[in-house]
Amino acid sequence: MEVKVGPATLELVEGDITRQDTDAIVNAANQYLRPGGGVDGAIHRAGGPAIEAECRQLGGCPTGEARITTGGNLKARYVIHTVGPIYRDGFHREAELLASCYRESLKLAAAKGLKSVAFPSIATGVYGYPMADAAQIALTTILDYLAQNPEIKLVRLVLFGRLAFEVYEQTLTELSHRR
Ligand code: ADP
Q1: Does residue 179 carry a pLDDT above 90?
Q2: pLDDT above 90 covers what percent of the chain?
Q3: Going by CA atoms, what residue is nearest to atom 7 of ligand 1?
């Protein structure tokens, strides 16, 4: 599924983020920027040790912020590492921090002159963010960003598994009808 936002495209696909050919892929990292499980482990395995070596130099990353490294052996030239909130009950700034992850990652990509970025569904694995709520935040934040900033031409959300894809598709369909 895809929608146009001015000159930009927002695309939803089911797949594996490590295989994307966008200028950058985004990693759902931890605050220490140390290789972990889930999508983070998959990116470090596929990208090789150059990514971890650069991460070590960065000295961590606070929740809601983003950092950039090389893409190592990946097709993508860069990896943008962002740290999602650990979901507790929805009353600990989780929504604000999750929105910030998408916005800060896009800002960093634009500052580097990148034109295409692929995201996984941040915080919806080990960090426990409910998928439907996370989809709403991810999609509205990306749509708002693209509507206000013309630099990035393609944002692709790469959903892992049919269920995640369907939740995002349903949410984007509802949002498109409202716009
Ligand atoms: P977090 O700690 O931010 O929750 P996880 O890596 O545990 O990060 O999960 C984030 C999301 O990434 C989950 O929805 C998970 O299903 C998904 N995911 C896991 N592996 C991949 C992959 N290779 N490509 C895309 N998404 C993935």
Answers
A1: no
A2: 98
A3: 125
Ligand 1 pocket, mutate which of 13, 17, 27, 39 (most atoms under 8 A from CB): 39
What pLDDT score was predicted for residue 156?
98
Q: Which CATH number fits the domain that encloses residue 92? A: 3.40.220.10
For residues 41-54, average pLDDT: 98
124 lines ligand 1 (CB under 6 A): yes
pLDDT of residue 177: 85
Q: Is the CB of 47 under 6 A from ligand 1?
A: no
Of 16, 21, 23, 40, the catalytic one is 40
> What is the domain range of residue 124?
2-178
Contact in structure between 17 and 46 (CB atoms under 8 Å): no
CB 137 within 8 A of CB 97: no
Q: 84 in ligand 1 pocket by Cβ < 6 Å? A: yes
Q: Catalytic: 40? A: yes
- CB contact at 8 A, 142 and 10: yes
Look at residue 178 in the predicted model and tell me its pLDDT.
Answer: 78
Owner of token pair 């000295």: 59
**Mean pLDDT across the stretch 141-146?**
98
**Selection from 52, 46, 48 nearest residue 67 by Cα:** 52
Predicted confidence at residue 97, as pLDDT, reads 98
Distance of CA 29 to the CA centre of its chain: 10
Total number of domains constituting the chain: 1
